[in-house]
From TrEMBL:
Pfam families: DUF3135
UniProt-recorded name of the protein: DUF3135 domain-containing protein
Domain of life: Bacteria
Entry-linked InterPro entries: DUF3135
Phylogenetic lineage: Bacteria, Pseudomonadati, Pseudomonadota, Gammaproteobacteria, Vibrionales
């Protein structure tokens, strides 16, 4: 596995070559996933995909940081709930309404 460069090196990379910094993030993330147990790999891959989706929503680096912090806090709250009140995570109810097509809908013929 690669070693994370120093803060100063990362800062310089962010200023001079943001694409290289992004590639380093992806490469190191994939390294971690590749070295994880088979049980954890799908979960880590899903988490990386989710993080990538959050990053893609950002309009600039500060916005990305704000979005990632919001996501981190959301997951921290969920973790706290799992520790302090695990029953609440599975005690959900929903009303399922089956889809039924309208009977009076017109049939449209498609000519080909």
């Amino acid at each position: 596995m690669k070693t994370l460069p120093s803060f100063d090196e990362l800062k310089a990379l962010a200023e001079t070559d943001p694409q290289a910094l992004e590639q380093l993030r992806l490469d190191m993330s994939q390294d971690i996933i590749d070295n994880a147990s088979e049980h954890m790999k799908p979960k880590l891959q899903a988490q990386l995909s989710h993080i990538n989706n959050v990053i893609a929503l950002g309009k600039n680096p500060n916005h990305v940081n704000a979005l990632l912090m919001k996501e981190l806090m959301r997951q921290f709250d969920r973790f706290a709930t799992a520790v302090n009140d695990p029953e609440s995570l599975t005690a959900t109810t929903a009303t399922v309404t089956p889809f039924r097509p309208r009977r009076d809908a017109e049939t449209v013929a498609v000519e080909g």
